[in-house]
Amino acid sequence: MTVPKRLIAYYYHALPRGTRLAMAGVTLLLVLVASMTIWWLQNSRQSAGQRAAAEADNAARLLEQRVLATNREIDLMLDDVARDAARMPMAPPLEWSEPTGFETIMMLQHKPDRLPHVAVLSILDPQGRVAYSAKANRGDNFSDLPFIRQLIAAPSQRLVISPPYKLRTTGKLGMVFARPVLDDQGKLHAIVLAGVHLDAWQRHLTDIELGQYGSVILMDTQYRLIAREPLTDRENLGTQVQPSQMRPSGLRDNTYFVVSPLDHEQRLSGVRNLAEYPFILGVGLSEKDYLAEWRAALLVCVFGMISLLAFGGWLMYLLWQSGRHAKLLAEREARLAAQESRMRSMVEASPCALGLIDFDQDRIRYVNPDMGLLFGMAAEDMAGKELAELFVRPEEWRACRKALREATTLRELEYAVRNGDSERWVILSATVLDGDGDQEGDDVLVSLIDVTSRHVRETRLSHEAGTDSLTGLANRRRFFERGSETFELARRHRRPFSLLMIDIDHFKQVNDIHGHAVGDEVLIRLARLLEVTLRQGDLAVRLGGEEFVAVLPETNLEHAIEAAERIREAVENAPLTLEDGTLIEFTVSVGAAQMQDDDKELQSLLIAADAALYRAKANGRNRVEADNL
Fold it and tell me: What kind and span of H or E run contains 220?
């Protein structure tokens, strides 16, 4: 045994028995998965080949019937013409101008009408000369053609089909079907010919779907090419294309693995020999097509096996290491327990609200009594709860926890937390203990300081700074803060936005006649009418004196004018009643303006609304005017 093997055996037997069994189980599982994968790949390849063989054979059968149908139609036509030719004189042949000759010519011309692939139909005399034809010249001698000589020499043959060659009458590649006509003594009386272009068979092959690399081929028994799809080079038609290799597939009868001499592609082909005619038909499916899915599955399996082996090796390594580090883990747990005990003592002695959070599970492990008082529950009842549940907005703690993973320490962040049915404001500081926030077993020490009183005081001061002290509406400061934000959002997202500029008509007379106290009551009355008339989300503002503004988000000029009319009517129909019963009737003038594309800031829209208000004043007051667009 070599030294590395001895070392492996030593370390293996030094592992705990449970670890050795686990490693043996992993090895057995890997071997089992690999064996099943190989078996599945073999069977799936065999199945794919069988399906392809069946598809090729079925397609070959279908095409065989098509080709047979075409050949039989030509054969039947020749049989009809042969019966007519048997009654006609051939030596010497009739003049074509005579009635019988004319009728024969017309018959030869119209017979192919129902078979457009028949290019020419002719009747030859026993010497191979043209006696009757719709296209060939009378007297043309075809006896130099081998198959014509064959018929003249052996007229007892029923049908002869020529090899592909260029037809003399059309100049195109074709084949000739020739039938001898014998007289009563069994001697040759005439020869009936039908010239057929090779396109007659090519058209049968074009609608067969065989994949990107499949092919269909039709040859005669001497392997001369008659038709092929795809036909990459028409010059190959009529040439010999005998396969360089052809062996039975073993998947299905009449199917072979064939290497094409034209493109050198190996295909699984269904081959049919047309018994009645000297034709061979082959329908081939390429492995590139019918094994494409199998090869994709093979790549997935290979990648999966590599990944599985890598995972198995990694798992074996982990199992190996787990045995060696069992004692170290036990010692670490003991140290952690001691640290936790010391931390608990420190936390309980601290005057702050402190808590220890399991960073992985995000659950409270321990809190001191001050933390329980802050949240209005007993400290022991908080153990096991998620800290996020105690926040008014749980997503704030989740964001804070995410930041802790990167920074490990956060200082003095202000949040709202729950205390029963009320809420309190705290300053939070947190730090990750025993790691960087990514390792199992990390804890987070959280410190909370109650700043509810300070927060309430600051909120009240902020509200007062933005509120008109007389009417309780937003003041000029809040108008430009909030109004500018709303204006920018509307401009950025191309949403409608409008302003109403509102002014009390003859307000100076109210102050002069009834005093400033009554004037203040009028201002308050207008403020309340604005609050009940405007929509939720609109902002009513007192700019100063008797001038008010209404901020209308998501509102075009037409709807802004409607809102302005509601305000004007509400004011007109709601006079102020003093304590002595005196009615103080007052009205307002309103200017409306909608944000335009060239408005860059709120001030420009305010100027437009103020201009509209000026026109309302100039046109008699107690009315609404809109900005001139």
Answer: strand 215-220
Q: Are 516 and 599 in contact (CB under 8 A)?
A: no
The DSSP secondary-structure symbol of 536 reads: B
Residue type, 160: V
Q: Looking at residue 502, what is its pLDDT?
A: 94
Q: Say how far apart CA 323 and CA 248 lie, in whole Å.
A: 58
β-partners of residue 220 are: 279
3-state secondary structure of 268: strand
At 552, phi and psi to the nearest 5?
Answer: -120, 90
Task: Kindly report each contact of residues 308-313 with a partner whose C-beta sits within 8 Å and lies 24 or more positions away, as own/partner.
Answer: 308/30, 308/33, 308/34, 309/30, 312/26, 312/27, 312/29, 312/30
pLDDT tens profile 247-262: 887 888 888 888 877 7
Which tokens sit at 561? 């004018």
Lowest model confidence (mean pLDDT) among 261-270, 306-315, 359-368: 359-368
Q: What is the C-alpha separation between 111 and 80, in angstroms, rounded?
A: 9
Residues with Cβ < 8 Å from 426, sequence gap 6 or more? 353, 374, 414, 415, 416, 417, 448, 449, 450, 451, 452
What is the tens place of the pLDDT at every residue in 479-510? 888 888 889 999 998 999 999 999 999 888 88
Closest CA to 59 of 266, 186, 204, 260: 204
Coil/strand/helix, residue 101: helix
Mean pLDDT for the stretch of residues 144-165? 83
CA gap 548, 502 in Å, rounded: 5
User: Tokens 């300053």 belong to which residue?
Assistant: 427
- Yes or no: say if 410 and 399 are a contact pair by the CB < 8 Å rule: no
pLDDT band at 436 (very low <50, low <70, confident <90, very high): very low
User: What are the tokens at 519?
Assistant: 């004037």
> Tell me, what DSSP letter sits at residue 142?
-
Decide: 63 and 275 in contact? Cβ < 8 Å. no
Cβ-based neighbour number of residue 348 at 10 Å:
14
Does the pLDDT at position 628 exceed 50?
yes
Confidence of residue 437 (pLDDT cuts 50, 70, 90): very low
Half-sphere exposure of 467 (CA within 13 A, CB side): 11
- Going by C-alpha positions, the residue among 288, 244, 242, 290 that lies closest to residue 52 is 290
Give the integer Cα–Cα distance in Å for 609 and 616: 11
Question: pLDDT exceeding 90 applies to what percent of the chain?
Answer: 12
Strand partners, 271: 282
Compute the distance between CA of residue 547 and CA of residue 117 in angstroms, rounded to an integer. Answer: 96
Q: Which two three-digit tokens encode residue 564?
A: 């302005």
* Residue 432 · residue 444 · CB < 8 Å: yes
